[in-house]
Amino acid sequence: MAKIKGVDLSEEERVALQKGQRDGKTFGYRQRCQMILLKAENRTSKQVAQQVGCCEVVVNTWLKRYKEQGLSGLVIRKGRGRRSILQKDTDLAAVRRAVQNNRQRVSLAKAELEQELGKEFGVLTLKRFLKKTVAATNECAG
Q1: pTM score, whole prediction
Q2: 72 CB-contact burial (10 Å; exposed 0-12 / middle 13-18 / buried 19+)
Q3: Domain containing 125: what range?
Q4: Which of 34, 70, 112, 122 could hold 98 in an S-S bridge, CB 3.0 to 4.6 Å?
């Protein structure tokens, strides 16, 4: 893979990146803005990687995405990561029935659900799902 030299930034792009570095919602986004700003100062990818705390390949990958997509390319897209085993829209009714039948024994509710849904999961997965759906229900009611 050819090395990416650097990037020329206009004044408004530089201001937008500085604002993103300062006020970005996530640490990763702020770090990616910093990478682009450092590369604009004609630093090598190795120098940027050492300063930011990653490897050269990561610096070059984010620089390439910035060149292709602009500032929106530095945002992690939705849909990444592992999908949850229990889905709110399809499994919620079955979970409610199983919990009502076995209010005091989560392990029994889990066994009943595994049989009904044909999915394998742990007790902690069920507890997390219940916690998440109760929190969402409370937000809607409040």
Answers
A1: 0.61
A2: exposed
A3: 88-141
A4: 112
